[in-house]
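job 3f2a | input accepted
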Amino acid sequence: MIEAAQESFANGVADSVNGYTPLRALCISLRSRIDAFLQEDLETEKLRNVQAQTRTALNVILEALNRYSLPALSLSYNGGKDCLVLLIIYLAALTDYADLPSTLESIYIVPPHPFPEVNTFVASSSISYHLSLTHFSRESMKTAFADYLKVKPEVKAIFVGTRRTDPHGAKLTHFDPTDGGWPPFMRIHPVIDWHYTEIWEFIRHFEIPYCELYDMGYTSLGGTTDTNPNPALRIGEGRYKPAYELVEDDEERLGRDR
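job 3f2a | predicted structure (258 res):
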């Protein structure tokens, strides 16, 4: 069902754009929807905040496209809510890019003991959104990125869906070189200042399909051995509210063991 919804969303936004490659049609249609959203006179403060965050993220991505050629850019994608929002805005930003390829360079660093639901969503969404996704097992993030850059030496900068409240996110900016001892590349963080509720407002406003685990009370996705439904969403024995009902940023990782 998730795969069908994902394909339906991607096909639906592109159906109205004829005469283009599938990726460009998707980019054009998403940009049209986002531009319309940015021009709306919205009634709720939450959505007005999302408007402002979307403008900022779009401008960061456009700045990245100005600094780097597209072959020098990649996307770190794990199917989570934050990188999903980043991906949608990235696609919208590519509308006017002249030499758009058929697929976009991206990397999936697979956690130890991955959820089958996450792997299924990553696989289906990477097809729907035209990602050329390279998989690396995460013995360590540092090793995974080093191995990736060995096979993709043209990549100089990577979009990452890190937010301010994530581990090691507090002092990040929109553009940060990797730390000493890490493989050298520029980390680009278009959604760094988004709040948890703003991520979900965006996803739900645009009706973007997402990993089914979020409807089971999971709010931050790792592996099966260190990730549980969020106790703040518990409503009974084995029953949880969906992730989008959580409000506080500092409660997002309560279901994570580390």
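job 3f2a | The CA atoms of residues 109 and 205 lie 28 Å apart.
job 3f2a | closed
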